[in-house]
Task: structure prediction
Amino acid sequence: MTMQKQQVSFGWLTLAFRKAAPLCGAVFLSFGMSGCNKLIAKDLLNQGAREYNKGRFDKAEKIFKEAIERDPEFVQAKLFYATAIRSRVGSEDGEEQVKTAKMAIEAYKELLKPENDARLKDRDRDQVYAFIADLYKTLDDQKSYQEWLQKRAELPNQKPTTKAECLYSIGVIYWNEATKISKKYETQVPGKLPEVAKPDKWKKEDIDALLQAARTGLSFIEKAIAADPQYANAYSYKSLLLKEQAKATVDAQLVAQLEKDAQVAVEKFQELNRQAAAELSGGS
Result:
């Protein structure tokens, strides 16, 4: 299992509560123990952020947990706590990695309970869904990975490019399914691309499974393009899925049309990449 590294920094966190402990006596007199605990929790959040930014994830995790114990309604502490757990996953392997990944998933899901979700900012909510999906990918749980990608895509006010990226990623899952089937019928040719046997040499169940995977994948790719027509990678995988579909198609006329459509998608992918490169270089 691999863990996609996403850098999270708490360096932007305000340090306005550094002197929480000396002030706690005054707060207690004014607002009671609840107000005092909230102030201490904010100070702990700052302490945990400093430890996190130094790469001391275990220590940060414990401090964030203490902040939550002081103030159970402190959503920011819950978010940082989940992120600290998740940050340990990439440095672990085997059963330890599985255990930590599951802990992180549960910590993030805690944030999506109604009483917490209502306090989340849109950007934080989006990241919670992204991290849960990524953790399921680490666990090689493709079904849950796809489920959370789709949930993220459907978030209210989701950015078009993010929505397209999620839907495209689901399309890639189905492309992988299709290629696993077609590879069974490949013959390696020295110095050339592998040759794929004609569909009449395939098992019927493999034809049906590949066509279903390719068509389902294409439906997600089309949704990605609808969300963001400028999302280049979607056109690349549209081409690849059409080519997979062609491999399991008997009708020669339909094969020709699929290959033509695949070429059009490749050209669109190349065009968008050229445009992006020109924009980066300041060209037109």
